Structures are given as structure tokens and as C-alpha cells.
Amino acid sequence: MYSNARYGFDLKLPEYFDCEEAVNGDRIDCIYSDPPMTIRVWGEVNHEDWGFMEALQYDQIGLENTEADDLEVIREKSITMGGEDGVWAVWMYNLPATGEDNISARAYTVKDENVYKIELIIDASEWREQENMFKAVVDNFNIG
Q: Is the pTM of this model over 0.85?
């Protein structure tokens, strides 16, 4: 069980991930090597007073403007995350440096002055096998 004191959330992560909390205490980064994947879970102050959809759209624009080519929205659906309304989005994109297609699956919610995010980055060919694991991580997310 991981607990984040700075943003008041906790969740259960798969034991096979190697996890490290960020120095500033806003997130945890977890990696696994077979298949290669990364989970990031973080909170941030909602300076813009956005809802979860605005936070998602902002991140999608950021992904389009940086490392991703051919960004495609695979799925967006409403969810409950940490007892709050939220959204789940799955994007596929190509990394020009490697030529590989990746998936960025993200879940978002907002509570009080904070935005909460969970992200899985994985090779597109591995997504279907890991989707239920990501869903379990999202389902186990709790806010204070």
C-alpha cells in the first residue's frame, strides 16, 4: 500500500513493480521490466480550477505537442476514482525516436483543490494483457 501524505491519497500497487517516490512528494513512479511498463500516480494543485475533463484535454494537447506522433484516442469513459467522478482515457501514439507504438492509459479525478492522475505507459502490443491490472490500480485509489 502506498500513501501520499502531500496530497492525501493511497492505493495498492502490484507487488512486482519497483517503485520510488518523487523527492518533492507529489508522486510515485513504478517500473516493471517484463513487459516493460511504467505506472505514475500523482496529485497536483488545481491552479486552473479545472474539472477532470479539462485536465485530460490539457494533458492530451501536451502529449500531441511533445513526443507523440499520430496520437489516437482509443477510449474515453466515465469512471469513479477515489469516490469521485472521473474519466479514463487511453491514447495510442508513435514515438519517433524508436518507431514504437505506445499506450498511455490515464485516469483523472478532481477533489477540492487537487487534481489526481494515474498513468500507465506500455507498448501498444501489451495493453490488452495489462488493462485489468491498470483497472485494479484505479479501483484501489482512495482520497483521504
A: yes
